[in-house]
Design goal:
The chain is mostly helical. The protein is 61% helix and 3% strand. The chain has helices at 35-54, 61-74, 77-99, 115-148; strands spanning 4-5, 11-12.
Length: 149
């Protein structure tokens, strides 16, 4: 790399294109200053799992509501998607237990629907809720920045 020279002044140090080692951050690692974001992620996770399990009577709708609420708490599409996948990992066994061996009724579905289909509807609803809310947020963000230009 070449040195930057300013006329009448001393040489400037060689410019590096990356951040210093102290400010570099490993991906996927929480730092102490991310405490508020981490607590929001944990709260969103448990609210998604709780909503999925509490509204087990309406598969699909329960997932959509849980995804909508989870994105509202976090406001970040990537983080919300990661938290939603973790919530599915925790909620699917619970839904399977509630709908399978316990044989509790399911609203709005034809009689004899399998447990697997009801759980898949909940999974699809959660992903749809997160996706729709993130698309709406992305569109609103783009409109706000276009109006300033």
């Amino acid at each position: 790399m070449e040195r930057h020279v300013m006329r009448g002044y001393a040489h400037l140090p060689v410019r590096g294109h990356e951040r210093s080692r102290t400010s570099r951050r490993r991906p996927g690692r929480w730092l102490p200053e991310d405490r508020f974001e981490r607590e929001n992620a944990i709260a969103a996770l448990w609210s998604m799992v709780g909503t999925l399990l509490a509204l087990f009577l309406a598969p699909g709708l329960n997932g959509f509501i849980a995804g909508w609420m989870g994105f509202g708490a976090l406001r970040d599409s990537r983080l919300t998607l990661r938290v939603a996948l973790l919530a599915l990992g925790l909620a699917v066994p619970g839904l399977w237990l509630i709908l399978g061996p316990l044989g509790l009724p399911i609203l709005g579905l034809y009689p004899g629907v399998g447990t697997g289909k009801a759980v898949l509807l909940s999974v699809g609803g959660l992903m749809l809720g997160v996706g729709v809310r993130s698309l709406l947020s992305w569109a609103a963000h783009g409109l706000r920045h276009r109006s300033r230009a």
